[in-house]
Amino acid sequence: IKRIGVFTSGGDAPGMNAAIRAVVRTGIYYQKEVFGIMRGYEGMIEGDIVKLGARSVGNIIQRGGTILKTARSKEFRTKEGRLKAYNNLKKEGIDALVAIGGDGSFTGLHYLTEEFGIPAVCIPGTIDNDLTGTDYTIGYDTATNTAVEAIDKIRDTALSHNRLFFIEVMGRNSGYIAVNSGIAGGAAAIIIPEETMSFENLMTLLTAGEGSSKKSNLIVVAEGSKIGGATELAKKVAERSDYFDIKVTVLGHLQRGGSPTYFDRVLASKLGVAAVEGILKGQTDVMVGIRNSKIVYNSFDSIINHVHEIDQESLRIAKILSI
Ligand code: ATP
């Protein structure tokens, strides 16, 4: 392997820059050339590729977003699109790839490896923490901290007015951000896709609060909730009871931005180094991850279509502490 291509793909996540930096510098450390592919698979198809030096990734470890930009490409889902992309890689002499992204990006990479035999490793970069094969994905810690900060602020105003707040957090079909921001923010209830709390259960819980001396209630709702998002739930509760003064906050994309936490920077640095070292040792069609503080490489098949299960102990803790 002489030339490594690195790119970010799918949704952006804080810490992606730290991962790019780690990949570039590790490649150079092992005397390889490193190229940045702009806008994920879109830039690969268009041949938008730039050479990166150790200094070109200076001063980015603390920055959110991704200097390589990210995109979603329909064309890459076709064989013709992937052939175009591969020809551009060949033209630049790129003979190995590191992708930073989620399961969609990993799937695209899998097809490219299968069809053209190019060695490739995926680094999990998504705020959702929805990939099995790693305890944490890059960006999840920052996004959860952002959610907690927002919940704390909402609590101040909720308390002042005795209000019931529904706060919707991101996570796609995963409840990770919701569970942990809910525990850390002291939520009265946490609604996640993995565990079906019925609407009736929620009503029981809320009306129990009516009789207690609780001054305010914060309900954290994962965007993938099966019983409706924050707006829908608030509307349904309002229809059933006029006891509550209800407000809704959908945190949305602010969870995707901001300077990465120390945790995400270190995670991204470790995974970036491990991705390049793995590729140089012959790893391919794998995702690098961290399980129980150890670097692991897991095959495409062992990751895609598998759910990153929510830790049952976290759910138990959340319930005990919300009484
Ligand atoms: P996130 O979880 O943060 O959204 P992701 O990597 O899952 O990140 P996707 O939009 O699902 O984001 O995928 C990124 C890109 O990967 C897609 O735009 C597409 O170009 C490519 N891709 C996804 N699925 C496939 C597939 N089945 N075949 C080929 N390419 C794919």
UniProtKB/TrEMBL annotation:
Q: Where does ADP bind?
A: 21-25, 155, 214-216
Q: Which domain of life is it from?
A: Bacteria
State the EC number(s).
2.7.1.11
Which Pfam families does UniProt cross-reference here?
Answer: PFK (PF00365)
InterPro entries attached to this UniProt entry: ATP_PFK (IPR022953), ATP_PFK_prok-type (IPR012003), PFKA_ATP_prok (IPR012828), Phosphofructokinase_CS (IPR015912), Phosphofructokinase_dom (IPR000023), PKF_sf (IPR035966)
GO CC list: 6-phosphofructokinase complex
Phosphofructokinase domain boundaries: 3-278
Kindly identify the residues recorded as the active site.
128 (proton acceptor)
Gene Ontology BP annotations: canonical glycolysis; fructose 1,6-bisphosphate metabolic process; fructose 6-phosphate metabolic process
Top EC class per UniProt? Answer: transferase
Cofactors required:
Mg(2+)
Q: Which UniProt keywords apply?
A: Allosteric enzyme, ATP-binding, Cytoplasm, Glycolysis, Kinase, Magnesium, Metal-binding, Nucleotide-binding, Transferase
Positions binding ATP in this chain are: 11, 72-73, 102-105
Activity control: Allosterically activated by ADP and other diphosphonucleosides, and allosterically inhibited by phosphoenolpyruvate.
Where does the chain bind substrate? Answer: 126-128, 163, 170-172, 223, 247, 253-256
Pathway field: Carbohydrate degradation; glycolysis; D-glyceraldehyde 3-phosphate and glycerone phosphate from D-glucose: step 3/4
Main subcellular location of this protein, as a coarse class: cytoplasm
What subcellular compartments does it reside in? Cytoplasm
Q: Which GO terms describe its molecular function?
A: 6-phosphofructokinase activity; AMP binding; ATP binding; fructose-6-phosphate binding; identical protein binding; metal ion binding; monosaccharide binding
Binding sites annotated in the UniProt record for Mg(2+): 103
The protein's annotated catalytic reaction(s) are:
beta-D-fructose 6-phosphate + ATP = beta-D-fructose 1,6-bisphosphate + ADP + H(+)
Q: Which family does it belong to?
A: Belongs to the phosphofructokinase type A (PFKA) family. ATP-dependent PFK group I subfamily. Prokaryotic clade 'B1' sub-subfamily.
Free-text function comment from the UniProt entry: Catalyzes the phosphorylation of D-fructose 6-phosphate to fructose 1,6-bisphosphate by ATP, the first committing step of glycolysis.
Relate the assembly described in the record.
Answer: Homotetramer.
**Protein name in UniProt:** ATP-dependent 6-phosphofructokinase
